[in-house]
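Why run this: before we spend reagent on co-expression, it is cheaper to look at a predicted model of the complex and decide which construct boundaries make sense. The entries below are exactly what would go into the expression plan.
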Amino acid sequence: MKLFLIIFFVAATVALIIAGLYQTPTASADTVGITSGSSLLAPKPDTPDRALTLFLQDMQRRNWRKAFGDVAQANGVDEQAMMQEWSGSNGSLRTFSSLEGFQLWPLHESNDDAQIRAHMRWSTPVGPVEEVRDFGMQRDGNIWKVVFSKIEVPATPAQVVPVTYLRWDLVTGGESGSWGSRNVDAPRVRIISMNAVDSAEGTVIVGEVTNEDTVPAFVNVNATLSDEDGKVLDEESSFDRIAHILLPKEVSPYRIDFPGIPLADVKNVRMDVRPALVPASADPVIGVINQKIDKDAQGNSVLRGELLNQSGETVNIPHVIASFYDGNGRVIWVSDGYIDRALVPLGSEPFAVEIPRSLAAKVQSYHVVVNHYDLKNS
Amino acid sequence: MLALALACPTAAQEVTVPRSAVAGTDVTLSTTGSGKADFYLVGPGVASKSKVSLGEEIRVPGDQLRYAGKYLAIACSATCNSGEFFVTAAQPASLAFLVHPSRVPARQPDAVSGVVLLFDKFDNLVVASETINFQVKGANETLFSRAISTHDGEAWFRTSSGKTAGAVRLMAAVGDLSAQRALQQVASEPCHLRIKAQPTAKGIEVETEPVRDCAGNPISDGTIVTFTGTDPEGKISIDAPIKGDVARAHMKDAEPVVISAACGVAMSNELRIDLKR
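The model came back. Tokens follow.
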């Protein structure tokens, strides 16, 4: 009996070790925290989705060499370019992000090629970011390889860009001096529109705020909801869904979410805008071109466009905030999105922000503002 | 203080106090009776006790009477007696001149206000009526000049802003005292925004004509002008700051495009440009 138990446990251990060698996680979430290394006897990429899964897992682990081995070499992508595109550059949002997980949706498959849509979830300092990307797959003998299409970044020719931007500095007076001799008023800032929207997640307050003064303002908008008894239900701020620094006459959309509070429970909304004087710069000027409402791959309405950096300074993390208006000119929604690639001098980057299905039909016009975060100013 | 006063029944000795006194000056109180007594002085910022001889005058030094307000003098031997007197502010020694706002758009009615508060050398508010001479001067004009009497220690004025952008000096004077403040008069809302465009090798250079308010003041540098273009590819928008009275934007557009601009409440003319023609 004892001998039988020993033989049984030895056999079970060997079987588990062998199974472990062949084990490759199928759900990407299982690999969180693994930064390098792989199974000794990894399964072969003998199907398109398995090949892409292996490729994305290697990219997730930043195992660039192995990932590059999964790429079809025909389209002239080198390992360095692939790595740079995946891990970001110029202090972009991507450089601070990591692939948290992904899901694959086969779109098309033939004997020699296939196309798979990857829905990727990135964890970033500004919260989770979703990315949908279509990968082409190619048969190479009895295995499949990824056609990694390199994003072409137009090379800006060497040139001198004159910097003639305006800058405001703030001089704070000392403690000395008589009463009233050192007063500088806070900027005049006004909420020019506000609308309470009932969304699936709860109440959402959207609107626009403008700087009516002649100096830059740092702005934050707060909203307090109360019920019919006057009891405060919740108080929230616009957080990052606003362009905080407003130059004179600049307008920014804002959005304040109250998850879990249906609009039917709300009787009153108290708005509060808090401006402060701040040093600011008018540079960089970022143009928003080719804006149009379109459908994305999943059939959702999106506002697409391109950001064009008109200055000679790299914009590390561009942030797009768009307000959508109905036929009466009323703001009915505000969407925002971060661009995960840096905006190089005189370069452009595409963007897309989503419009909820329930409101898409009502949208008649829109306004886009570009906020930005720069490493040297942070 | 009140409890102490009530605890002391009226006695033979009396304390006679002056009807009023001026802050910082010595005060003499007289007492009746004889023998030694404890003398208490209680008032704003002071509570002191000393030994005095009844029947003699009690001299309270000015440094114990620095703060204007009601004082209570109490003399206690076998019994206590007390008297109240008021200390008023001394001569004005400083004036606080508060001006609002620090930036004001030109040609705004009742947009500028100022208030003066008079204080003596001990920072007591001088409530006695004084005449303050106010003057508000722009670059080329006197916006306001008037003498106004203080009431309960303060005098104020309100006036309209001037026509010309620039620094405005505000002065308040009483006797030898004076204070000066400055505020910045800035352009009002833009008026008659007009744009022009010219094709360049890289696209279209669009710029405003000098942006001014209805009084002709140049709009402050840094003010955002939003250029909007509509072409078959979609919409283009560029927020460009005014610099040297003019805002400029560059559009890389080869398609026919309709360009307009807006700044605050002002809308510009519309330009239709077709580079292919």
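The two ends of chain A are 70 Å apart (CA to CA). Residues 25-36 of chain A have pLDDT under 50 and may be disordered. Bring this page to Monday's planning discussion.
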